[in-house]
Design brief:
By secondary structure, this protein is an alpha/beta fold. The chain has one domain: Dehydroquinase, class II (Rossmann fold, 3-Layer(aba) Sandwich). 36% of the residues lie in helices and 17% in strands. The chain binds ligand CA2. Ligand CA2 binds next to loops. The site of ligand CA2 has 17 residues, from loops.
Amino acid sequence: MTKPIYVLNGPNLNLLGSREPEIYGTQTLDDIRDSLIETADGRAIEFRQTNSEGDLVTWVQEAQREGAALILNAGAYTHTSVALHDALRACTIPVIEVHLSNPAARESFRHINYVTPAATATIAGLGARGYHFALEAAIKMTA
Ligand code: CA2
């Protein structure tokens, strides 16, 4: 059976659509999930969000064991988490990092990034469309 594509979202992404639409857009995370499931055209998607660093690390490990690919928006843990970096370094599946905004063009504390060095590819600054480009790539890479 084909393994699912994991789409994991980190802290505060549950607040999407409620504030800062000029940075993060107007779609909620549920909107993004629903439209990704449509784009996936039957391919199984495991879509989750957590505010906990430990959960995110545990889910990355699960994605490596049980998933075909991982799409990850680690939110602010992108800029702080060596634990997440280490979990990603243990992944042999494709890992596509996604950000709605472009952290490299924002505050200097967002220029530190523990995910990019352990990711296969990064898509940033394209809003919710970035998740769709990532999914398209993940499907092609695991067909
Ligand atoms: O641009 C992205 O996707 C980010 O991963 C979003 C994170 C931010 O810490 C990263 O630097 C870049 C923030 C998550 C969303 O936070 C919100 C806070 C208030 C209202 C809506 C969203």
